[in-house]
Amino acid sequence: MQETWRWFGPDDTVTLDQIRQAGATGIVTALDHVPTGEVWPLEDIRKRQALIENAGLEWSVVESVPVHQDIKLRADDYERLIDNYQTSLRNLGTAGVCRVCYNFMPVVDWTRTNLRYAMPNSAHALRFEMTDFVAYDVHVLEREGAAEDYSPELLTKATERFKAMSADEREILEKNIIAGLPGGEGSYNRESIAAAIERFRDIGTDGMRANLIDFLRAIVPVAEESGVVLAIHPDDPPFSLFGLPRVVSTADDARALLAGAPSPSNGLTMCAGSYGARSDNDLVAMVKEFGDAVQFVHLRNIKREPDGSFYESEHLDGDNDIVGIINALLDEEAARERAGSHFKQIPMRPDHGHTMGDERDDPRVRPGYSYAGRMRGLAELRGVIHTLESLRNGS
Ligand code: DNO
Quick one: which H or E segment has residue 88? Predict the structure, then answer.
């Protein structure tokens, strides 16, 4: 596996030198200055690539080339937006940046309710708490019909929670949910999120899936011609938010999107933390089943609670069988080696980490993307990979 690290570009609090010191060899980054839907110019791709290569690293994965909401809706300007996406893929292929992660979540990208959830050791973790989310949806956003999407017990808990929150707490909760998290697409205020949700209200799961497959049929052949592999990121969390359909949440969803546009370029991101937030996703079985479609891996652990809430636990301590997942990925790499496959090394990144040490109370540090927290995660994961590889080699 290639050890990679997400870098938010020159204004990241973590430098390329520090990333090398942490032991990663690959960079995961995006041209965040290009507005969603516009073409990624070859010149800008080459400039970013040169920065990375001059630091002795490789640009291994693009995360993400965001998909415009109009493409997800097949509305308004979507044809031009798809053309632009195709051009961006061609430009990335020309530069030799060959793996592209993206997602197809409606309205909001990855979502948490608490970015400073205190662990027993006083480090901070990210948390999604269902009661808080419902309190926001029903009592702050006051989305029409929201109450019908939740059970009476949850609604009662959410009402109590809402009443007990101070104005500051409500404001922080709103910001966490709708203002956008690092690397996420879309930042809203209360009016604009309500309008965005409204646009998706009647699309339904089948409509959303059909739009994803139409999009894949337009971009996968271009990726293939350009030597690029796509790796769709699952929904995070992997269930409906704001009553909207999410179609990249389960093994069935992954099966459907792969079958909809079969190609070696139509691949998956195995985000352990996202798929793993559902107890009905068996991640080891998914790696085995999807095998050569797994083109990028986010290794992260979570602790689930019965109502759908979860928090991001330490990388080796949670409900995900990280050792089993890594073992299955090593099997897949060995199969690729035997088959002489071009993309035999699977890039992985330690996805998120706790905010700890000097960074914990530093407002410049991106939640989930601290240096120390991810370095700790990477070191633990590296230990697992090394051990499993040694056992395979009989040493
Ligand atoms: C969170 C991430 C997301 C993810 C995008 C993929 O840390 O996993 O930002 O990168 O949703 O398109």
Answer: helix 78-95
Question: What is the CATH architecture of 2-110+204-392?
Answer: Alpha-Beta Barrel (3.20)
**Cα 333 to averaged position of ligand 1 atoms, centre (Å):** 24
Two structure tokens written together for 255: 């099966």
Tens digit of pLDDT for each residue in 289-336? Answer: 999 999 999 999 999 999 999 999 999 999 999 999 999 999 999 999
pLDDT digits (tens, 9 = 90+) for 15-27: 999 999 999 999 9
The answer to whether 39 touches 87, Cβ cutoff 8 Å, is yes
Structure-token match 């909760």, residue found: 173
Q: Please, what is the average pLDDT of the chain?
A: 97
**Residue 329 and residue 288: Cα distance in Å, rounded?**
8
Question: Which mutation among 233, 297, 348 tests ligand 1's pocket best, with the greatest number of atoms within 8 A of CB?
Answer: 233
Residues of the chain with CATH 3.20.20.150: 2-110+204-392
φ, ψ of residue 368 to 5 degrees: the values are: 90, -20
State the pTM of this model: 0.97
